[in-house]
Amino acid sequence: MASTRVLLAGALLVGVGIGIGEVIASRRTAEPGLARAQAAAVQPVAQQTGLTAEEMSVIRVARQASPAVVSVARQGASGSGVVVRRDGVILTNAHVVGDAGLVQIVLADGRRLQGRVLGRDPTVDIAVVRVEESDLPVAPTGDSDRLEVGQAAIAIGNPLGLERTVTSGVISAVNRSPRGFELGGLIQTDAAINPGNSGGPLLDSRGTVIGINTAVLQGSSGLGFAVPINLANSVAQQVLTTGRVRRAYVGVYPRDIDPDLAAQFDLPVREGIIVVEVEPGSPASRAGLARGDIITRLDDQPVTSGGDFRRILRDRQPGNTVAVTVYRPAGQRTINVRLAEAPRQ
After folding, report:
1. Tens of pLDDT along 135-169?
2. Which domain holds residue 310?
3. How much is the average pLDDT of 10-37?
4. Torsion region of 261: left, alpha or beta (phi above 0 gives left; psi -120 to 50 gives alpha)
5. DSSP character at residue 140
6. Which of 56, 125, 196, 286 has the greatest count of CB atoms below 10 A from its CB?
7. Final residue of a structural domain among 218, 242, 266
8. Active site members
């Protein structure tokens, strides 16, 4: 069975109050009327230059957003980031900053600044960095819950060291949890994402950030993925208000079920996750989950892969109880698991 390799889009390939409310409020101001006015302003220019309205739209977004795109570097790796607050708050990927407490930030105007990593959440591959600078160019954030398949998508980053490279395409799918990924609930796009793009913004045609670019499928033709900006903003809000991210924790090591595995072991389902190991003393262990259990639902939501499992858990809080539907040789049953707080990483 062929395996699909997943590559984080950063240069780890070499080695493998103002508050957040300002950001959230900004996405409410981008009304359809504004988009129509911008499009109307572009049309005369497009006629004069011979460029299409679509091309002019990409040019406008690139000019508008590029000043807020930064380079993020640490020893042995580099990637991209985007400024989301004028007082120096930057979103990037957790795999770009790694375990570093300090990173080097290069602004669009060439200034080199020291960035302090305020917090990171490896489970969603988002990190929050701050530089001691004010009145920086900002990229406004959009609403990733309202994305439509087929709408325009524009990626900006520093692939292979080529600063502020722009690629364009469409939203190919939403809420993707590809097999082989540790992440789930991702935006899929055919806008080219390459090593070094990690942490850079994925934008819509209005120039608002809809995702943080994170990974590509090696050997694929145009399969890139981004963390939805609503999820990234949620991480940022927790980091900026409490200094850390709290995540619900079950305590199982799952493996995706695919048709080959189901046929080999004559499993009763063709989709879901099989529990490979249960951590001793974990919520799963205390509730009675066991090795070999096949999980197909959490509460009322289907689990078709490990990505689904992690995505659903991200919406739960420590202390919540989830109903886990499992298949065993004796039949299907539901086990209630009281979630704990994930150990800090």
Report:
1. 899 999 999 988 999 999 999 998 766 777 899 99
2. 248-341
3. 38
4. alpha
5. P
6. 125
7. 242
8. 95, 125, 198
